[in-house]
Each structure stands twice: as C-alpha cells, then as structure tokens.
Design brief:
Helix content is 86%, strand content 0%. It is mainly alpha-helical.
C-alpha cells in the first residue's frame, strides 16, 4: 500500500516537472518567433538593402530575455546550483562540525 502511494507521488512530481519544462520551452519558442517578426518588421530588411536597427527595437528582446533567463533559472537552475546533493553535503558538513565542537568540549 505504501509503495503505491510513493509511486503515485513520484508520478505526480514527474508530471509537474514535465509541465514546468514544457512551459519553459513554449516560452522560448514564443520569444524566438515574436522577436523574429519584430526584427524583420522593424529593420526593413525586406524592402531595403541596409539594416537599420534602433535601441527601441532591441529593448523588448533584451528585457524579455531577462525574464526568459529568470524562467530558465526557475525551471533548471535549482538542480544545477543547489540540488539534492548540495543539501546532503551541506547537512553532513554541518553535522561533522557540530560533532567536532562537541568532542572538543567533552
């Protein structure tokens, strides 16, 4: 009975993780498509031989890119920087320091 509960819980966690990853990739795809249209529309690349890009046209991709980077960090970042292994190592380190301090006082 307990293993079924754990399996169901793990399955739900995996589903949630997949939704987070899928959401990020949809966000990335929309970012690329919208910015391609903005770049093509604002640069007059189709009607002239020169490319004229102003800062105003680059501000949207820049600031949206910061938001996209934050979305990436929310989806993939925690496992890269402070994942489960980091927590376990930190707990072990703190416990070892506590043991050393207690042994010095005894």
């Amino acid at each position: 009975m307990e293993s079924n509960f754990k399996d169901k819980e793990l399955y739900q966690m995996a589903q949630k993780r997949i939704k987070e990853i899928k959401g990020f990739y949809i966000h990335l795809l929309v970012y690329v498509i919208v910015n391609i249209f903005i770049f093509v529309g604002s640069s007059n690349i189709l009607t002239s031989k020169s490319i004229n890009i102003e800062f105003g046209h680059l501000s949207l991709p820049f600031f949206w890119g910061i938001g996209l980077l934050a979305h990436w960090a929310g989806v993939f970042g925690p496992n890269l920087f402070m994942g489960k292994n980091w927590e376990e190592k930190k707990i072990k380190e703190i416990l070892d320091k506590e043991k050393q301090q207690r042994s010095q006082w005894e």
